[in-house]
Amino acid sequence: MHPDDVLPEEIGTLGEIARGGTEVAANRERDDADEFLDDEEFDESGDADFSVAGGAYGVGDRGRVLVCADQAPPFDADAPDCAVCVDEPGEVIAAVPAMIGFPPERSLVVLVLRSSGRGAGSIIDAVVRFDLDQNGGRRLRAGMVAQCVLQICAHDDIAEVLVVVVDDRAVESPRRAETGERCGTGRFEVLIDALDRRLATHEIALTGAWAVRAIEPEQPWWSLVGPDRQGTVPDPSASSVALSHVLDGRQIRGSRSELTALVAEDVEVRDQVAAILDGALSVARDRYARAVRRGDPSDYSRQALDYVLWQIANTESGVQLMVPELAELAAALRDRAVRDAMFALAVGDHAVAAEGLWAALTRALTGRDRAEAASLLGYSAYVRGDGPLAGIALEAALDADPDHPLATLLEASLMVGMRPDQLRRLARSGHDTAADLGIDLGSPAP
Question: Which Pfam families would you find in this protein's record (predicted)?
């Protein structure tokens, strides 16, 4: 199955969300999903694809689950010291693009809530996005969504969820619009009713659900459960959640395709690198052999690590790497010590530049080398809370090498909902690895 430093935003009393009072927290995302229909048509074997990140899950067609989560403060914190508050459904809807990193289209977005630990109020602990339409004309099923939500709830103090349906084809039920009563006959009402029943059997309440054609300024939204409510979406770019994310350095992209483009193979560069990669590997083997003859095999790793760090500095300075440099970097990262030391950069001052290099390598390489670079990109994104990018990078890694150890480890971590702060142990290990080679990467992040 297939979502930065962000303060969880606190939500007011959950019952108030459906009535209009709400505070929002962006923590995890998932993107994509499978089919949706009513309970009677639910198929337990439906495919799903989940992605994790600063607050997101995603479901697609690979049949894996990845879990995304925000980074700071740690997820196990009882409640944030500072909260971004939202007090009506339109503001919740407007905050969704910031929470998942891009404006969703033809999606069902589930906001999973946990107790704030302060009595009244809750925190949005996870944001899960499902594609309403899948390959072959299939539609999302309530059972798929419930299964995903229940997996999250198994690891957290979860009791309530919110749902936002985003679909340009959405039409408010005439009967509901005229009477203000829930009729349960529309496409989305059927899905929401089925999801509500499934979650209720596990004592999880679906507190509010709304539909909107697009998350854009002045777009109308309407409620799908409870008393009839309607309104318009405020400017998403001006939402308090979006402002909080931007101030924390988190990028809100224009679409999910902008994320996939970061790891899409550049065929021309890929072929050029492939043509000279064997030569770069031969040079690397010669260097290693000379280090062994000198009685200091680690000297090869030290020089290779220095080279990677130098190229990261070049990337930070805006230098575009040439094909021979990409090939030499691929050879350097085949050294396990060099690769392991790279974990440290995910929590340091050069994380952005390192991610830029990993993305460039992912686009330029194939097979195990592409998987290595994509895994480093996925790890860095996961640790800083960019769930959508983490999920997409790890998907690319496992497409390139289904048995890649690091990608498999990260996928398993995401699958069980491991918090980003727990993965920081790899970063500390990276500092130790570099130190063993005589290279100081600075003080490891706490």
Answer: DUF4192
